[in-house]
Structure to design on (304 residues):
């Protein structure tokens, strides 16, 4: 099975601390790397993670709060200084486009690579990126400004050929793709060999949903049903439920409600308020609702 990894670069909220950087992650799948959000300090975290700058092909920005995009212009500039030539795709709310290109005009002279902006509609769930390996969908969220999450879905692969069966029945190489696609095989003696004897089932496709920032949405579970892993902001504990409601954020318990109702494989908590010196209080609250919950932390890598 090809690696499907989530690299945590930052999991703090609006106020950077000595313990946590602002929001940023890298999703790695089948040799491709995609960034979600790019808060201040992201490029330093990339270096600490030993993620190769050249392999990053796209950045998905959820919304225009600084803790999710202040690091973008610095990273674009650094890529230029490092001699990047491959284009970089940026996905984000429409308002980001004019801000980004004005910053580039001021600070990024002589870039030798192309930055391509793709405006996303934060109010609808739709596929905005697709290649041979995966699709990326928007997830409408509810925050103080236009905001969406992103859902990465691995595409299904073909079944695995049983090499010993292929050799035993002397099936020519030219027929292997047909068998992977579901064809049976008939021997020279007329014996029908059913497809399920010739192949092993492919692995179940994996998926990852990133939901930050948002207030609790009772119907959000319908959009992320059954994902392998869900990252859901958990800015506050239940002790600060009123603040969560005021600033359109979620508590750890509310994140767990989404995970439970969506029947996800695992829940990753993040976007912690700086008021918490020990996030285990958030973890414990979430586990009371959804047991398979984990805390994010800088430099952690989650394997799906």
């Amino acid at each position: 099975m090809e690696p499907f990894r989530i690299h945590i670069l930052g999991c703090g909220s609006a106020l950077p601390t000595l313990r946590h950087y602002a929001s940023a992650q890298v999703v790695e799948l089948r040799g491709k790397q995609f960034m979600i959000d790019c808060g201040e300090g992201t490029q330093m975290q990339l270096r600490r993670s030993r993620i190769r700058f050249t392999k990053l092909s796209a950045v998905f920005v959820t919304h225009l709060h600084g803790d999710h995009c202040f690091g973008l212009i610095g990273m674009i500039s650094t890529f230029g200084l490092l001699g990047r030539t491959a284009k970089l795709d940026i996905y984000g709310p429409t308002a980001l486009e004019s801000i980004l290109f004005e910053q580039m005009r001021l600070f990024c002279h002589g870039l030798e690579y192309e930055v391509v902006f793709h405006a996303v509609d934060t109010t609808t769930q739709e596929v905005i990126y697709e290649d041979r390996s995966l699709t990326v969908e928007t997830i409408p969220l509810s925050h103080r400004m236009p905001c969406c999450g992103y859902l990465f879905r691995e595409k299904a692969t073909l079944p695995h050929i049983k090499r010993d069966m292929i050799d035993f029945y002397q099936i020519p190489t030219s027929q292997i793709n047909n068998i992977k696609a579901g064809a049976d095989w008939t021997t020279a003696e007329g014996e029908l060999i059913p497809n399920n004897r010739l192949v092993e089932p492919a692995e179940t496709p994996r998926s990852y949903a990133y939901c930050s920032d948002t207030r609790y949405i009772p119907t959000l579970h319908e959009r992320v049903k059954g994902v392998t892993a869900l990252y859901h902001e958990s800015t506050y504990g239940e002790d600060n439920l009123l603040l969560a409601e005021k600033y359109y954020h979620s508590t750890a318990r509310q994140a767990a409600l989404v995970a439970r109702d969506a029947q996800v494989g695992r829940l990753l908590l993040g976007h912690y308020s700086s008021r918490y010196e020990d996030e285990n209080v958030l973890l414990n609250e979430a586990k009371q609702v959804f047991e398979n919950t984990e805390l994010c932390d800088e430099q952690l890598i989650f394997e799906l």
